[in-house]
Design the sequence.
């Protein structure tokens, strides 16, 4: 970024300020009398000193260097980068929601509690689960919560031999990472030729030591596992539980429900499926839903509706795994999800999923004549292609992704899932028009032509962006992580 | 070319047997698929490795991969040079890019490994997928 825009520190001049504070009208006390000396800093913090106008220009300029869903197509597979309706933002900013404090008495926060209670019920209906917690702050946090619930359940059953969690080789890395963090041993099960779970291999590893099987359905290839009922029978048959990773829930809303497929625990990514601007670190929300028999283990508190129809945070849950977050939820994301669900309604959600699947299949059908399609079958909301047909030109997926930047697109997810060499994972989402899809497909076809005509052009892309090809090896081996005063 | 004197696994690891000492590494195909290697994590000398189990990781700009031991035994030498210059793995995976030497206590798992010809055929078949 050097040369394009200085760091905020470089705008700093001693004594410059964007605010003028009123004079102190309360008695002063020396900080040394209030804070133990060991915790008191002896040097001034070197904060930038800048005028408001410089700060505003600096950050506004930086914001124009971004690519977001509001600036262009963003087919980043597995991330569900759909357009997020602005009405969600308006509602999340209503003063009654935006200014509420978690320590306010419940009689004064009935509106927020009601919204959370109703959203829990909505998510239960959408997924076919009996009880939901909104506590987890994001998807992987939801996974951790779900797996800890499963662990607590087996412990309650005094079933100590269940040390293993089975994960398919197409899973997101967070699945095995979660299970390992929760103290389980990971057993990987391979995919079959159709891209689903290899049932025979699953049978071999399904023993009474299995605590859970974690599955994303549709999986990271964008393929629905048609054997899900059989998978559920195999896992339940040995006393294990089924965990549904809701990463790809955008494909099935109103069409299929994890609860009906036999899953015992589900997490959803509200920020993805239910429309909150995401990417770049947050905020997220990863509610977890469970079947009745697991409800006592949900993290406490849970929002419940009392006899008198008012809502409360119920802390009296002796079997609960405890808190997984200081306060109940990332509330602003919850408001957006509620607004999204209520504005689309059941039919609307179903149509959104249908369009997400239609868009993905349309793009896949156009592109399969120009790129290698490793699993040639109807996909769900995303699909994986590779430039294997262009391999002889020495061009890799990374080069094609970089070249897409020249045409103003955010690239697809690349090199994932790991089971497909040189994978390019494309998720167009439901919010894109056929014209946008056509333009994107034409661009990818054009890039394939460029590879054949002038591979070097593609291998050295991007050429038109503010920053050109990055030295990724240098960045990984010798990272320059901190600005130091010149 | 994959050297004739090595044994190869489906996970693209290789093993060279010299008496009771087995040298382990990753294949040319593995380094090519991984792309530029940026970190290598290896066990310490004296550590125990088990056949079929991961004994370290190779991290490239694309992904982090486990490296799987072909034999069981204890590590008698570690390629320290590669920890500082992981790109050696990309340049010379069968020579300077070796990873560890193991004093083998059990080599039975190596019976299932491929020779160079079989491995070439395996790569060709895998490429058709």
Sequence:
């Amino acid at each position: 970024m050097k040369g394009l825009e200085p760091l905020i520190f470089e705008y700093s001049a001693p004594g410059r300020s964007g605010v003028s504070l009123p004079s102190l009208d309360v008695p002063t006390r020396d900080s040394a009398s209030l804070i133990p000396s060991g915790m008191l800093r002896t040097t001034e913090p070197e904060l930038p000193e800048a005028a408001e106008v410089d700060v505003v220009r600096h950050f506004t300029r930086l914001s124009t260097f971004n690519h977001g869903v509001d600036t262009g197509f963003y087919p980043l597979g597995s991330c569900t980068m759909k357009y997020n309706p602005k009405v969600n933002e308006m509602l999340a900013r209503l003063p009654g929601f935006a200014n509420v404090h978690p320590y306010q008495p419940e009689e004064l926060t009935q509106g927020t509690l009601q919204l959370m209670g109703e959203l829990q019920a909505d998510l239960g209906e959408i997924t076919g689960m009996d009880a939901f917690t909104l506590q987890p702050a994001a998807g992987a946090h939801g996974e951790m919560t779900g797996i800890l619930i499963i662990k607590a359940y087996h412990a309650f059953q005094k079933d100590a031999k269940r040390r293993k969690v089975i994960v398919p080789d197409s899973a997101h890395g967070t699945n095995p990472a979660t299970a390992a963090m929760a103290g389980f041993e990971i057993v990987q099960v391979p995919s079959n030729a159709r891209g689903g779970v290899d049932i025979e291999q699953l049978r071999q590893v399904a023993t009474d030591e299995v605590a859970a099987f974690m599955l994303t359905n549709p999986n990271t290839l964008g393929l629905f596992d048609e054997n899900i009922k059989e998978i559920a029978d195999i896992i339940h048959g040995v006393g294990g539980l089924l965990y549904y990773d809701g990463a790809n829930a955008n494909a099935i809303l109103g069409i299929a429900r994890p609860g009906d497929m036999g899953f015992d625990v589900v997490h959803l990514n509200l920020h993805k499926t239910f429309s909150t601007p995401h990417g770049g670190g947050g905020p997220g929300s990863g509610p977890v839903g469970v079947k009745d028999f697991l409800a006592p283990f949900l993290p406490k508190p849970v929002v419940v509706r009392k006899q008198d129809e008012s809502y409360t945070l119920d802390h009296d849950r002796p079997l609960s795994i405890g808190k997984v977050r200081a306060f109940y939820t990332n509330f602003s994301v919850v408001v957006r999800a509620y607004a999204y669900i209520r504005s689309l309604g059941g039919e609307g959600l179903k149509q959104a999923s249908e369009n997400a699947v239609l868009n993905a299949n349309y793009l896949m059908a156009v592109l399969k004549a120009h790129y290698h399609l490793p699993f040639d079958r109807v996909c769900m909301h995303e699909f994986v292609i590779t430039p294997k047909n262009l391999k002889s030109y020495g061009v890799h997926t990374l080069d094609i992704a970089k070249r897409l930047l020249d045409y103003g697109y955010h690239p697809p997810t690349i090199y994932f899932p790991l089971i497909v060499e040189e994978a390019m994972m494309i998720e167009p989402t439901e919010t894109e028009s056929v014209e946008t899809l056509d333009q994107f497909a034409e661009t990818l076809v054009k890039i394939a032509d460029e590879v054949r005509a002038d591979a070097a052009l593609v291998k050295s892309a991007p050429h038109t962006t503010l920053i050109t090809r990055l030295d990724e090896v240098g960045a990984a081996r010798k990272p320059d992580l901190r600005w130091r005063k010149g | 070319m994959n050297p004739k004197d090595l044994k190869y696994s489906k996970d693209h690891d290789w093993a060279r047997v010299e008496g009771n000492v087995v040298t382990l590494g990753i294949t040319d195909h593995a380094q090519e698929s991984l792309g530029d290697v940026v970190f290598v994590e290896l066990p310490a000398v004296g550590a125990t490795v088990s056949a079929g189990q991961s004994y370290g990781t190779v991290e490239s700009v694309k992904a982090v991969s486990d490296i799987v031991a072909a034999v069981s035994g204890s590590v008698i030498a570690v390629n320290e040079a590669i920890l500082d210059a992981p790109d050696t793995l990309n340049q010379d995976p069968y020579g300077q890019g070796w990873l560890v030497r193991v004093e083998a206590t059990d080599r039975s798992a190596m019976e299932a490994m491929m020779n160079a010809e079989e491995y070439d055929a395996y790569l060709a078949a895998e490429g058709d997928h």
